[in-house]
Amino acid sequence: ATFKLMVRDNFINNCPVTLDAIRVANNIFGPDAASLQGKMARRPPEHVDSELVEIPPEIGLPFLVSISRNITLITVTYMPSRTTADLKKGMTQIVLVYRRRGLTVTTAMVDNQFNPLRGLVGDVDLNITTAAEHAPEVERCIGMIKERVRAQKCRLSFTWFPAQMVIGLVSFCVFRINAFPHTNGVSQTLSPRTIITGQKLDYRSHCHAEFGVTPKCIKIPLPTTPLILPRQPAR
Fold this sequence. Notes:
This protein is of the alpha/beta class.
């Protein structure tokens, strides 16, 4: 339904897909098997009213995940470690994303591992959650990212993923999530990515190939027979 909305309202520039093509594809192929395998429902945790930042232990690698309330922009950054220096660098990058658009981050809901960052991230007020508290928005966000990553992995034929490929896969899934307008966002026609960066999706640049596709190439051997030049006529 979301893809139909994007095609109908021309969210993707230069997109050759039509609504009739989507309907026919759904009738022929049915629901996406990878999405059914990779997605599952989650129980909603308790509510905490604030901005949200968290590091989830997902896919074996730590990522700094943030989601802004109202705009619902998701950012994800791979964290080489959980040291204070790396956490500060990741938080600073998040703040700069909004500052480039003229927005100011005032409050961030974080857990106890961010406690050493108090006073180190500009004027951002870090609201430290207790052990019994949960941030439902970021919990749902992390769950959605995990679902998309699992669904995308089901489409791939690889049995082992190196760390750099996992990082790229998570970034790819978050890029796709930010490219669609959020149902609870401030705009039903502009995606979070468009609101913050001012850029729209372009079919020629962003939709030509899925993540992890392998090109099928052939190597044409060069001729090994020496080139025989015609003899020059005698003078």
